[in-house]
From TrEMBL:
Keywords: Glycosidase, Hydrolase, Signal. The keyword Transit peptide does not apply. One of its GO terms (molecular function) is hydrolase activity, hydrolyzing O-glycosyl compounds. InterPro entries: GH (IPR017853), Glyco_hydro_5 (IPR001547), SGNH_hydro (IPR013830), SGNH_hydro_sf (IPR036514). This is Cellulase family glycosylhydrolase. It comes from Victivallis lenta. Residues 413-674 form the Glycoside hydrolase family domain. The keyword Isomerase does not apply. CDD domains: SGNH_hydrolase. Pfam families: Cellulase, Lipase_GDSL_2. Residues 1-17 form the signal peptide. Coiled coil: none annotated.
Length: 716
């Protein structure tokens, strides 16, 4: 049954009275002392009754279906809690039907009604049943869902909007819907759309899959719905999201003739408003549109949607160099690219918001922009399922701290243990064509032999793969957006890691951690990690947990071998995750003279040699502060998966650099792996410091003694 037209309930303190708002209700103006909440949903939100529902369903009341009474459905529980936070204000509840929004005509009618009421807050509940649609119909549903959200965000004044996931009582007791299920597919689409638009998304899967939260009623149709316990969980999840949205997002869309009002542009840029977007034609490095904005102190999610080349959103303090960049380039004008990045301000600031469409020569750069949205961070982050710092702090791998090498050849395992006192090694599973059955079987045989040898020498092993392992194509370019934006990426990563974890079951006592992806990198999103990496890692983690609940996961935020991804990072929704950083900064020192930079985060070869370091221990400490802050905030284990300096770097600088790093890692209590043992000769501790000399040193180098002294701590 569809919701009746805009029935409205009013909270005044704890009192509740009912009123009716008809289709002919004139457009409201914002009223002081009134806070209006619009609930757009289906029978979970409100269901009426008549002789037919009493006879066929045993349903004889008007409220969210399966609630024992109106006051116990999630709408009224949520509204009552909101009322407690807004003393002196009257809370009005209005209803709209998400079922009516399945067609263009229905959406238009729903939009008209929403616009007439000017809600302060919109709760959108939709998507039940969409997971069973055909591919074409699902894309139509997804487009309609996006349109519903965009219509709410286009209202002036703009209301807060919170989107809620689907209700599907599977009885599994799990906090998330099973990967690959229709429900998971729907929520993934909802999350993606919400992220693009800067709308907070709330999953209620943990309540839907709890058997205690449904099953009340005399018919199957009623029993499917959330009972009083389920309604309470529903309201709790919504209120948690509401509580964490202190302000409204700053939304800039370019879909109407007035879209550029308030924006200026430099002489190097020309603008053309097109249906739904603005075209930016730039010549020169300062080609941009810009405007002043004021943001209160807090954490934000800056998101945007665009396409073309050299399209960058920037924030600066006046005309200073931008301190924040968001890349929206995708290299073509065919597909839109959406992206988002965190922003943290310690105090209220007046900032310059700019969008560049720049070119380095006299040619015209063409880029197109749909939107830029700045949303309070708590309004755009789904915290459901994240373990607390208290829980994370109580979990540690065994041993809690390890020290060792990256080591690819199993012939070096005995040396690593007996000559160096390492207790861990980090090994890559060769990636090319790993998805092919014959290749996978051969690789697992080889890895099994490696793990058996490691067990013999009492070594733990970290197993890592490169991103190419997720492609099935050994020649895939995994460092650009075409790879990371592939919608099948997360599913392939999950399937591969599940298969690896299952195949290596006999060796779980040896495996220290599964390193989900070595140095995830997308040059099109630099200096940030690929935004697709976190959801891909979560999918892979859940897949591993379906066959291996105990082995630790290792997560490198990236990008590449950098650690910028720790800025604003939140833990993965798993209690057994080691967070990993690689450290080679400054690169012109550590990588000097290395000419093969394929797959690295280096833009150009560091051809110059005899480059001094210029960094002391305190500068390194400051540079690693974002990792340290994350570790201390969430109380998680940190492992430095790689660090090194080429052997021909200036001798005293290289020795001091390695000593500073080891001492800092020990001070922080971090695990570490030197890169690498019996690897590329440039990283070798056993060769001389002479560039081009491939003969081993006759006497032990001081670099070797520094690492050996650090590894000796494994004996303490």
């Amino acid at each position: 049954m569809k919701l009746r037209s805009f029935a409205a309930a009013v909270f005044a303190g704890a009192a509740l009275s009912a009123a009716t708002v008809t289709d002919e209700t004139p457009r409201h103006s914002p009223q002081p002392g009134v806070y209006r909440i619009m609930f757009t949903g289906n029978s979970i939100t409100m269901h009426g009754f008549n002789e037919g529902t009493i006879r066929d369903l045993g349903w004889d009341r008007q409220c969210g279906m399966a609630a024992s009474k109106l006051e116990n459905d999630h709408v009224h529980l949520f509204a009552a809690r909101v009322a407690e936070t807004r003393p002196g204000e009257r809370i009005e509840i209005c209803y709209n039907s998400s079922n009516a929004c399945k067609t263009a005509e229905g959406r238009a009618e729903a939009d008209r009604k929403t616009a007439a009421l000017l809600p302060d807050l919109v709760i959108l509940q939709a998507g039940e049943g969409a997971g069973s649609l055909s591919a074409d119909e699902f894309e139509k549903w997804r487009a309609g869902y996006r349109t519903m959200l965009e219509s709410c965000l286009a209202l002036k004044p703009t209301p807060r909007v919170i989107a809620v996931g689907v209700w599907s009582p599977t009885g599994s007791g799990q906090a998330e819907y099973a990967p690959g299920s229709g429900e998971a597919k729907v929520e993934e689409a909802q999350r993606e759309v919400c992220t693009e638009l800067g709308v907070p998304f709330v999953s209620i899967a943990r309540y839907a899959q709890n058997p205690a939260c449904s099953g009340t009623g005399s018919s199957g149709g009623v029993k499917w719905h959330p009972n009083d316990a389920g309604m309470k969980g529903y309201a709790d999840a919504l209120f948690d999201a509401y509580r964490k949205t202190p302000g409204k997002p700053a939304i800039f869309t370019f879909d109407n003739p007035e879209a550029l009002k308030g924006w200026s542009h430099t002489p190097e840029l020309a603008t053309e408003l097109r249906p739904g977007f603005v075209r930016l034609l730039g010549r020169g490095g300062d080609a941009k549109i810009y405007r002043a904005i004021t943001l209160p102190a807090g954490e934000y999610r800056v998101s945007g949607c665009g396409r073309g080349s050299n399209l960058t959103v920037a924030l600066s303090r006046g005309w200073e160099t931008p301190f924040f960049l968001l890349q929206l380039s995708n290299g073509n004008l065919e597909k839109w690219r959406s992206d988002s990045r965190p922003l943290k301000l310690e105090k209220e600031e007046k900032l310059m918001l700019s969008v560049f469409s720049s070119s380095a020569d006299s040619k015209t750069n063409i880029a197109e922009l749909k939107s830029v949205i700045l949303t309070p961070e708590s309004a755009s982050t789904d915290e459901a399922g994240l373990p607390t710092p208290e829980v994370l702090g109580s979990r540690r791998p065994s041993p809690a701290v390890v020290r060792g090498f990256t080591l690819q050849n199993r012939d070096g395992l005995e040396e690593a243990r007996n000559e160096w006192n390492a207790n861990v090694v980090r090994k890559w599973i060769p990636a090319p064509d790993l998805t092919a059955d014959a290749v996978f079987k051969q690789r697992m045989t080889e890895i099994g032999e490696y793990l058996a040898e490691a067990r013999k020498h009492r070594l733990k092993v970290i197993l890592a793969v490169d991103a190419a392992a997720f492609s099935g194509n050994s020649k895939a370019d995994v460092s650009h957006n075409a790879f990371w934006s592939d919608p099948g990426l997360a599913d392939r990563a999950a399937a591969l890691w599940k298969r690896i974890a299952a195949a290596l079951t006999p060796y779980r006592d040896v495996i220290y951690a599964y390193d989900l992806c070595n140095e995830p990198l997308d040059w099109d999103q630099m200096p940030f990690p690929p935004k697709e990496w976190r959801p891909t890692a979560i999918a892979a983690t859940r897949a591993i947990r379906s066959v291996d609940p105990d082995t630790w996961i290792m997560y490198e935020p990236g990008p590449g071998g950098l650690h910028d991804g720790f800025q604003g990072l939140k833990p993965l929704p798993d209690e057994k995750v080691i967070y990993s950083v690689h450290y080679y900064s400054p690169h012109d020192f550590t990588h000097q003279g290395i000419h093969n930079i394929t797959g690295t985060d280096l833009k150009e070869v560091q051809a110059k040699t005899n480059v001094r370091c210029g960094w002391d221990r305190e500068k390194i400490r400051k540079h690693l502060q974002s990792v340290r802050d994350f570790e201390q905030k969430y109380r998680v284990p940190i492992l430095v998966g790689e660090f090194s300096v080429v052997r021909w770097a200036p001798k005293e600088d290289a020795e001091r650099y390695l000593a500073d790093l080891v001492e800092l890692f020990e001070e922080f209590g971090w695990s570490w792996c030197y890169h690498g043992l019996r690897d590329y000769h440039g990283w070798s501790l056993l060769h001389t410091e002479t560039y081009g000399d491939l003969t081993p040193a006759k006497e032990e180098t001081r670099r070797s003694r520094i690492i050996r002294a650090g590894l000796r701590k494994n004996l303490e």
